[in-house]
Design goal:
Structural class: mainly alpha
Radius of gyration: 19 Å
Strand content: 5-15%
Order of helices and strands: EHHEEHHHHH
Distance between the termini: 56 Å
Largest sheet: 3 strands, mixed
Number of helices: 7
Number of domains: 3
Shape: globular
Length: about 150
């Protein structure tokens, strides 16, 4: 039996930046998988299906040489399967252990968040995604991987 995946042509990147949740809800209601033309990607829309795929690397590979991540940054262990993935993961895993996060990273993440929150009090209104959520995530990741903040 063969089935076709619906093609979605009306999603713009700005829609996802503005408020992705209605878009995701519509895609989930549409089908278990959809092809998003603007991204040139097939998206699996439902949690149980995503979980099943993640647990079946023999059928579904993470290796995607044409992905934007690979084109921009080169191959990373996140886009590898099996032994190649395990080698990369083992190298960074100690930094992500709960005890390490609690003892070493949590104070750094808290300081980042507090600095950004202090900056929020200067204005009457703020876009919390742009002013807080995105910077906390990116600055925390930058701290973990050793990137300095760029001027």
């Amino acid at each position: 039996m063969t089935s076709t995946v619906p093609v979605v042509t009306d999603i713009a990147y700005q829609d996802l930046l503005d408020d992705p949740y209605p878009v995701f809800r519509r895609l989930r209601e549409m089908a278990p998988a959809v092809f998003v033309e603007s991204a040139r990607l097939t998206l699996v829309t439902r949690f149980d299906d995503i979980t099943r795929i993640e647990r079946d690397p023999a059928t579904y590979s993470a290796d995607n040489p044409t992905s934007l991540v690979n084109r921009v940054m080169g191959p990373t262990f996140m886009r590898k399967d099996g032994t190649e993935h395990a080698i990369g993961r083992k190298a960074i895993e100690p930094s992500f252990r709960p005890a390490t996060i609690k003892e070493y990273w949590a104070p750094k993440f808290t300081a980042i968040a507090e600095t950004l929150i202090d900056e929020l009090t200067v204005t009457d209104e703020a876009d919390l995604f742009a002013a807080l959520a995105a910077p906390v995530a990116s600055l925390s990741l930058m701290a973990m991987i050793g990137f300095r903040e760029m001027p």
